Amino acid sequence: MIITIGGLAGSGTTTAAEVLSEKINIPFISAGNIFRDMAKEKGMSLIEFSKFAEDNTSIDIELDKRQADLAKESKDLIIEGRLSAYFVEANLKIWLLAPFDTRCERISNRESKSKYVAKKEILIRERSEALRYLEIHDIDINNFDIYDLVLNTNRFNPVNISEIILTTLKVI
Description:
Helix content is 58%, strand content 13%. By secondary structure, it is α/β, with parallel strands linked by helices.
């Protein structure tokens, strides 16, 4: 079974993928980690690399290709990434969302930075990503039509989220 989990920064995609992976014993990969690794390879911060990627479509294309190739090579895999659902043949495509302030607080805590800095960085990053997705792939990140399940994670902990996903898997 191939499952994609997408969502904006701080919506809980990585944590949900990790918990679900443990519960159903299916490995997961993170497009965010691949992107971060690519930034490190270039010696850039995530913000710098996002800006760099705006003018270098090869970055996004390579990221998308790596995800699709990994899914093709796997029988069972959870792929976590904002655009994974668009490039991976999946049995279940999930989008997680959460209010902006919730996402900022999660990132602030996770990355040990002030909420103000987290908000500023998220806005810069999301504008950059939305622009790239539209220009490179003609994808509007705010259109959820491709997803089988859209879930607001604001009121649920990671275990609850995985249970909702497991319940969904039982009916498909």
